[in-house]
Amino acid sequence: MAAKASVEAISTVNFDNINRRLSDVERRVFTKHERRILNTFKKAWVGWLYKGRPVGAERNVSLKAWRSEIETTDGAHPVLRIINDKDYSGFVHRSGSNDLEWQVIWERVQLELIPPLVADLQRAIAEELNKPSNPKKLGPRGGGKTVRMEITL
Amino acid sequence: MGLEIPVRLQSIEAYIIAQHHGFRYLELNEIQTLDQWAGDIVQTIEDEWPVDTSTSRDAFSYTLMEGGEVGFTILNDVDYVEYIHRKGTPSIAEGGTPLYAELIPQVIAQYRDGMLQAMRDAVDVSEAALQAQPAPKPKRGTRGR
Description:
The structure holds 2 protein chains of 2 kinds.
Chain A: E1 7-12, H1 24-44, E2 66-71, E3 79-84, H2 101-112, H3 114-128, E4 147-148, E5 151-152
Antiparallel strand pairs in A: 1-3, 2-3
Chain B: E1 3-8, H1 10-20, H2 28-48, H3 55-58, E2 60-64, E3 71-76, H4 99-132
Antiparallel strand pairs in B: 1-3, 2-3
Helix pairs in contact in B: 1-4, 2-4
């Protein structure tokens, strides 16, 4: 059986001085950067050669599968996940290169986009730090059946 | 449990067939337009979602449909998300309406017209570009002498 590899790139930031979830203002800063980072992956994930794929066949299939998730419940360690569930996305590389494309993009994200995320979030946290907020118990994630509701437009 | 909410734009699928005179997959500019609107819709759902710990709000994400379907699927893998209801309304066990079933269609209705128009515009742009492309050259014959 051929090996398969989807992508899950995770970035965790440490802000040990807060003992609560991110406030709405702080979370908005985080989601702004989340979207920017996800868009960086999507913008870079184009221009493939599709060698051997017939004219008219579907293209950009793995592009459609990029998504992101965040965790802001533990404000000291907010988490950003960039995910692609396509089982070949982890192997994709540019013609003439052995570098895995997701790693190339992720390295660029870590160099160029994570530092401003951290700086903006630090600033937002510093501004919010004196506002009262009760620590909350964390809720569970995952497991069980999924509810499906279809919407057609 | 969790949520999986496919939002399928069948009117755009029909529009593509009408404009293209047949089926085709989405072009890149159409994917990008759909992605922008799906992102805005999910962001608005998150903004309207009530917050206790933020766990269920953080878990929203979406992917675009593939295989010739035009649309996107809203996902949330938090296992109690379908039991969340508005404060002051009956719980789901008491016959109340789950928040997702009320809020998500509301938000989509808010964006519906703009999204469909933007998608039709994107299809028009694609069709103009496709029609401007030179027809593929016929393959050179390989007849033997």
